[in-house]
Design brief:
about 0% strand
Length: about 270
C-alpha cells in the first residue's frame, strides 16, 4: 500500500516526467522520442530534458523508499532491515546549515546580477553546505552516543572546515568592503576603515575577557556581522562605484614659428667663408 508520504514523491515524479515531455516536445523533439527517452526520435534540448527526467527518477526512488519504510515507522523499519527492533537514535541537535544555505542561495542570486565573485562565493557556499549537511546527518547516526558522534564528525571535517571557511570568509569580506569603498569618497573610506577596525578589536576583547560566553551568542554576533557586511557589499555593488576623474597629462604644443626641433622656420642660409 502506498503511504501518505510516498504519495507526494510519486506525484512530484509524475509532474517532473510530464514537464520533461512538454519541454522536450516544445524544444523541437518528437512526441515518440520524448516519451521513450530518445529511443525512437529526438528529445529536443538535451540538458533541460535530462535534468527533468533525472528529477523524476530521483523522486520516484524516494517515494519507493518511503513506501517500503512506511513513512519511517519503527516496526516496518526493523522488518525491512531484518532486525527485531529498530535501533534507538538520539535526536539531532540544532544546526546552522539551513541558515548558511539560505545565505549562499541569496549570494548566488545576487551574484548573477551584481558581481561574478559573489556568484562564485554563493556557489561554493552551497556546495560546502551540502557536504556539511550530509556528513552531519551521517555522524548523528553513527553511534548511540551524541558525544562520540560529535567527535567523529569533528575528526573528519575540522581539517577541511578551517582553511576553506577562512578563505571563503576572506573572499566575501574583501569583495564586500571593496564595493563599499569604491562607492564612497576617499576621506569617508578612511574613517569607516578605522572605525571598523576599532569595532572588530573591541568585540574581540569582549569575547576574550568573557570565556564563559555561550557559543550561541558568539555565533549570533558572527552571523550578524556577516549579514551586515554582505548586505553593505550588495547595496554598494547595486549603487555602482563613484565617478573617478581622470586627468590627462598636459603636452606643450610646439611654437608655430619654429620647427619640430625648435629651429627657426623657413629656409636656412649657410654662410661660406671667402
Amino acid at each position: 500500500m502506498i503511504t501518505t508520504g510516498s504519495k507526494y514523491f510519486f506525484g512530484g515524479a509524475a509532474f517532473a516526467m510530464v514537464a520533461a515531455w512538454v519541454y522536450g516536445w516544445g524544444t523541437g523533439g518528437g512526441l515518440t522520442g520524448v516519451m521513450l527517452f530518445g529511443l525512437l526520435g529526438g528529445v529536443g534540448e538535451l540538458t533541460g530534458y535530462t535534468v527533468l527526467v533525472a528529477t523524476s527518477a530521483l523522486l520516484a526512488g524516494l517515494g519507493t523508499a518511503t513506501s517500503i519504510l512506511r513513512d519511517a515507522d519503527p516496526e516496518h523499519q526493523a522488518l525491512a532491515a531484518g532486525l527485531d527492533r529498530a535501533p534507538v537514535v538520539a535526536p539531532s541537535p540544532g544546526s546552522y546549515w539551513p541558515a548558511v544555505g539560505a545565505l549562499s542561495f541569496v549570494l548566488l542570486l545576487v551574484g548573477l546580477v551584481a558581481s561574478p565573485i559573489l556568484f562564485v562565493a554563493g556557489a561554493l557556499g552551497g556546495l560546502i553546505v551540502g557536504l556539511e549537511w550530509m556528513i552531519t546527518a551521517w555522524s548523528d547516526r553513527a553511534t548511540g552516543d551524541a558525544a562520540t558522534n560529535r567527535r567523529i564528525r569533528d575528526q573528519l571535517m575540522r581539517p577541511f572546515e578551517v582553511p576553506v571557511f577562512a578563505l571563503l570568509g576572506i573572499l566575501v569580506i574583501v569583495v564586500s568592503f571593496s564595493r563599499v569603498f569604491l562607492m564612497l569618497e576617499a576621506r569617508t573610506t578612511s574613517v569607516i576603515a578605522l572605525s571598523l577596525g576599532a569595532l572588530v578589536l573591541g568585540v574581540g576583547f569582549f569575547i576574550a575577557y568573557r570565556p564563559h560566553l555561550p557559543k550561541d551568542v558568539i555565533a549570533g554576533l558572527v552571523v550578524l556581522g556577516a549579514l551586515v557586511v554582505i548586505g553593505a557589499g550588495i547595496a554598494a555593488a547595486a549603487a555602482g562605484p563613484r565617478e573617478i576623474e581622470h586627468h590627462e597629462p598636459e603636452h606643450e604644443e610646439p611654437d608655430e614659428s619654429h620647427g619640430a626641433a625648435g629651429l627657426p622656420a623657413g629656409p636656412i642660409l649657410l654662410e661660406s667663408n671667402p
